[in-house]
Amino acid sequence: MDHHTGFVGASEALAHPHYRLIGTIDESGLADLTMTNLTSGQSETLNRYLFPSHGRAPKCGRLKFDLHTWDLDSASFKEMLNIDLGARNITEVRKLIKDNSGVALYRDGFRVQPFGEVDFDWRGFDLRRVNNPTMRFSNNQVAGFVYISADGDPGLRDRSHRGGFIDSLEYEDLKGVLTQAVSRLETWRYGLRRPKRESRESDPITVDTPSRTSRSRPSGTSSTRSTRKTPS
């Protein structure tokens, strides 16, 4: 059985995303995000409140995340063929990404099922993309990890059959703040990909809000700064 032993790891394709979003969101909804275009090396950091004002902080507690995303057009995948991914053509590269897509959730270092399974689109990426396919990511474009803790997020409780979390305000807030973070990346990516002339002529882009009655948080700080750096 020696030939069945060895290190078990994710596909090498996951180490080469086109974009990466890493960050934390604290108990008040204040996010510290870093968005990076791994192809060009462009990077932007964002520190602001993502959760809309309902007279309360998000109930989900503190979380951190690391999300990798890809552009699915052929031109964006050509460079990946030069990397040893075990793929012979663009179709196989797309399949590698699709087979490893999904946002997994870990609580105190242990994975919570079925978060992260390819067919479990708990963030509703595909539904969001229907309304805006040019800007939004589909589920097979995103792979990543969300980290929470039992002490910091006591309201996120498992279903009796271990099939995800019980529907609750805490779970809705978790999805809401994560969607807001992804929306920032989508907007930034869209600005990088569209022509400068189109950028000048287009109206400002707005991001999703978890609720139709949501308003911008009146308190807190908001600052954005851009840097350029070489991707690791």
Characterize the structure shown.
- It contains five helices and eight strands.
- The protein has helices at 74-78, 90-99, 125-131, 169-193, 196-201; strands at residues 19-25, 30-37, 42-49, 63-69, 102-107, 110-111, 142-148, 223-228.
- A hairpin with a 4-residue loop joins strand 1 (19-25) and strand 2.
Question: Secondary-structure blueprint of this entry?
Answer:
Layout: E1 19-25, E2 30-37, E3 42-49, E4 63-69, H1 74-78, H2 90-99, E5 102-107, E6 110-111, H3 125-131, E7 142-148, H4 169-193, H5 196-201, E8 223-228
Parallel strand pairs: 5-7
Antiparallel strand pairs: 1-2, 1-4, 2-3, 3-8, 4-7, 5-6
Beta-strand segment tally: 8
Radius of gyration: 18 Å
Determine the structural class based on helices, strands and strand pairing: alpha+beta
Spatial gap, N to C terminus: 37 Å
Percent of sequence in beta strands: 15-25%
Order of helices and strands: EEEEHHEEHEHHE
Can you give the mean pLDDT? Answer: 81
> In which order are the strands of the major sheet placed?
6-5-7-4-1-2-3-8
Shape: globular
Runs in which pLDDT lies below 50 for 5 or more consecutive residues are 197-207, 209-232
Largest sheet: 8 strands, mixed
Q: What is the helix content? A: 10-25%
Alpha plus pi helix count: 5
